[in-house]
Amino acid sequence: MSLSAQDVINELQHAGLRITTQRRSIIEHILRMPAHFSADELLAELHNGQMEVSRATVYRLLPKLVQLGVVREVIYGEEHRHYEVVGEDQQYHGHLICEQCGRVIDFVCPAVEGAIIGVCREYRFWHHSHTLEITGLCEDCQDQPLNN
User: What's the DSSP call for residue 56?
Assistant: First the structure.
């Protein structure tokens, strides 16, 4: 089951946030975004769709959506953050992050997931979440000179 714009709006209202036309447009668009997006990519998509949304509104709303569990930050790089929508039916996945072009590749590896569960059992540790981000160079960037 995927999240609806109205579900998100209800959560924001419950958290005491006023729902403006801009915020509604941002929410609706976020739920249609590809797997990973930055705030600037979201803003560009909104503007390409002829939506008048301020940069400040986008940058203020995203942390609130992270706090509510609607989206999660998937890259904690120095340059900019990426986000993805957290779906109820979404299975765990890790991220391969290209240090040259910024490409993010999702991967699923049951062996890694099993190892994490095994380590937690061995140390009698109850975990509620984990992230796996591997940085390096994607196939396209491996033959190119590094940008420094």
Answer: H
